[in-house]
Protein 1
Amino acid sequence: MDFSSGELARLRVAPGIDPLWETALSLHLLQNRQAAPAFDPWRREARAAPARAGLVPATRALMRLCPPTGYFPDFLTPGCGDTDLDTALDQVLATPRRRLAAELLRLYADTGHAVPPGVRPLAEGRPEALRRLACALRGYYTAAVEPYRPSCVRRPPTTAPRGPMPRWPAAPRGCSPGTTSFRGGGARTGSSGPRTPWTGNWASKAGR
């Protein structure tokens, strides 16, 4: 890759770690065998933590949106170096319906399939589906990414941290682990009503 002097002058270093980029890239790592000696200890803990929190369906749903190879939707990583998770999630929740539909269509077109029925509510920008997405992203990030951020800041992640992953907190901010409930700061992140168990389908329980 070549850069002109003008392009180099415009380069900026991000002020910190972008939580949604780290989330997406970690979902890729969970689904491949890249650098097994370094990442397998983390993979074992990253699979166990969502299971303890009842977030296996949410994690699997996120994996389907972030396959280990090929395209994944750009709306999952909307920021330009944003380091605040709440800000990043608000950007995801504000994604225009047209963009949601186009990027999910591209994701499944790459696999030779149509957008599955369970994903269509998300492609249509339905508030309940977007709230589920925000809660799934927050829950997975809290369980599988955030505990490892200090080691990423201090040094390149050549090895996974030793020891057990910290216990899941009582409830990530704005979410109820294992449910559909998400409460955020923006207009589209209000309470989703009753806290109902989620099976990994983006459609609401009532099928709306």
Protein 2
Amino acid sequence: MEDLQALVGQWVTCIRVSNYPEALTKGKKYQILSVKADSDLIRIKGDNSRHRWYSTFSFDLSGADAILLQEVHLDDPIHNPNSDCIEVTLKFSDGSLRWCLCATPTHFLHHIENGIQPKPKEQDGLEWTVFQFLGHNLKTKSGMDFMSFNIPHLVMFSHLSEDTIWSTMKHLDDQGELEASSLPYKNTSIQEDSE
């Protein structure tokens, strides 16, 4: 464990709010008031004006700016809020892009019971149909057929809407979990339009 005493008086950046959403804000800088000997705890004054001990796990000790979620774009229309699976693009403050799937459990049940079904898509006035392949049909040693899913970039919802998706993505970002729940777009970032 590094010597944290040297950090007293320095400013650190919150990178996850953990169990303290009323006291910490991701991306906000906080001054270290003291450190607890032989631990990873630092004392700061939170947004609620209370002084308390927090784990260094929630902070970038260098004080660098945190990368924050800025936008959530639904790449597909939601046809049925209670049974659907859509792709979502996430834009961050450093210009990077990530994506994930947002789905309901009933969509997967329908997929298991009925197999791959066509899904209408539309973008920029163009319409087409795609087939979403989400799992594998497998067979056990005893000969039983079954389907399995392993989708690390999938976030499950009881109900899909723009609001539920934004709220969930913001919560995952605040907890430092959004990177693990999404995949990066390769060599892509949004460039500001200079025209």
Protein 3
Amino acid sequence: MEVSLAIQVQEVLGVQVGDSVKANFGAVCGPGSRTAGLKGPDGSYAGQGSSGYSGGKFAEPIGMYVIDPDDIGIKLLEPAIFEAVPAYAFAGDSITLKGKRFTKSDTVLIDGSPVQTNAFSDTALPFAVPSLKGGQHTIQVKQLDGTLSNKASLYIKPKIDSALQDNQITTRVSPGKKINLIGSGFSESTIVRINDVNLRNVLNPFTDIDLTELHRKHFLDGSKTLLEKVATTFPNAKVIVTGCYPPVSEHSDLSAVEILLVALGIVV
């Protein structure tokens, strides 16, 4: 098809195949009385696109405000918090706010609630952390006339004081029974970990964590022995440990073990 078309073009135009030919409207296009066609009409304009969405509004938009010397003077009289030391604490710990323009009558507000303070200078304001849920909290200093300082943050850490099982405080608990942890700084997102043993700690030959004798023998030492044998048998192989089943021992909850075996398809 391409060869016959090329021959036809050569015969009609009288040119070599592959040559560039430019049409001249109204002029003779080739042998005979045929002429080039007339120019077609211009195309129509495209239609207007749809309107965009309305812009959003901010509660406190950025803007330009006129400041006079009185405004600067008022700000220079307000208390200012530079930092809370320490910024991470347990309930009952002593916190010191460092800043400027503190007075003995100032009150510390944590999330808007007042906390008793004991100011001993205009640059340091100590207070005791009350019983609060764990997580981030906002701190401000309020003066007698209602003047508020800038905001600072304080993070309350969880702390376990004791464990309660069978209505008795104990340091050794029995598997399969409910345990109540007594302490402070707990929240809805608190995660309880027992022994804090995970695969990264166990398989790290340079780990310095304090493992119990049971964990060290069956987790760390056993894993190291297995990996050393694999490396010796397959010296050119790359060994990747992608996971590990939960450990089971004589101290495990047998009902939980049964659920695990069913999930793995070992028992039905």
Protein 4
Amino acid sequence: MDQIWWNKVTNAVRFVENISESINSGYSVILQLPKYVPWYASMMEIVNSYIMRDNSTRSFKKECDQGIEPGEYLINKFCKQEVRAHYRPGIGYPRFLAQIKEITLNQSILWVSEVDAVQVKRWHSFITDYNKALEKNKTGGLFVIETNDISLLKETKGIKLISYDDSIEEYDNYVFNMLAAAELKESKLFKQYLSEAVSSMLPDDIELASICISMGRKFLNNPIDKIRKAAKDNYRSDGTVFDVKESDEQLKDRLWRAQIKMIFPLIEEHRNSVISKYKNQIEPLLPLRAAYGEEIDEVSGVELGTIAFLVTTGKIMVDANDSDKIRLLKNMRNILAHIGVIEQNDIDKLFGF
């Protein structure tokens, strides 16, 4: 599933390409990531492979932020004791490090993770000053600074700001779910509805969504329980637990919205097909009175409840199969109109028409 997300979903692919292309063009990157990144390790592996493909002379290092001044951290990490002895506060860490010629930092790409709001400002300031202090045409170290929020930062010379939240859209989640569902041996309509339901109920958790998609029909038979069970029985790729904060009512509302989006239009299509088939019987009965007294004078406006009433009272004659179909369509439409959720057995019958 991780390969589908990072290699096939367009904006996810562009996101990792943007990081690697920025580094390969000589920029440092301050990278905004959410708390949970889908298959983080796979993202790192792909970015690393892209970067090292075009930077074979550089080394790639990943470190957790130490919560200290970036310059102090870098001097301690990359400079020998005899070099550190020459540092003076008046020089400043950025200029001191930029002026050293024989230092492995110059051939390094340093990815720093777990950088908080205070530290990211320090890193931004350090890298900005470091780039200014580098001699013209001198190769210096490159940095990827991973943090949760970059909204207060600005791009400066040699620094690119890249945001996961700005790169990935809700539609990307749906595309992923469609691609993941494509492997199931089900009808096109079923896979489309499964993708819509999972995308609506789990719009912000791709990893949990992937587990639900893989359940296929079992998921749609009892979506809310299956989400709870999947979250309880599985872990994220980084080893942390899933945390579904939404109540059952909230999840039910999201499922209803998915049905409004996909099932309701199908019901309307079948209503129109019934009207078209029995138009010659319905038109002579116009105008008709609907359930709430409104007058219907166009055959296209005859609702399922009215059609069912005409069948029940014998005013129009329909095939036995169509009678059952009209009854089912009417009941399904009424359920959705009253903010209810249609059972999967009935949806399967709708897909079978």
